[in-house]
Amino acid sequence: MQRIKDTFFNMSSKKVVIVFFIFLFLFFTNLIDAICKKRVLVTNLQKCINLALKNSPMLKEKFFNIKAQEKSISIAKSDFFPHVKLKGTYLRSEYPNRVIFAHKNNQPGIFDRDIFSGGVELTLPIFLGGRRIYNYKASKLIKDISVDRYFFTKQELIYNIASTYLKIIETKKAILAVDKNIELLTKQLKDIELSLRVGKVAPVDKMKILVPIANQRAKKKTLEQNILVLQQILKRLIGIDEGVFIAPDIEEKIDFQFKYKLSDFDKLYSLAKQNRPEFKAAQKQVEVARLNLKKQKSRRLPDLNLSAQYNLRSGSPYDQDGPPGAIDHEDYWQASLNLEIPIFYGGAIVNNISRARMQLFAAKQKLKDIEFDLKRDIDQAISDVISSKYGMNAANNNKKLALEVLRIERLKYKMGKSTINDVLDAHANLLNAELDYIKYSFKYNISKLYLYKATGYDLEKITKNK
Question: What is the pTM of this model?
Answer without folding.
Answer: 0.81
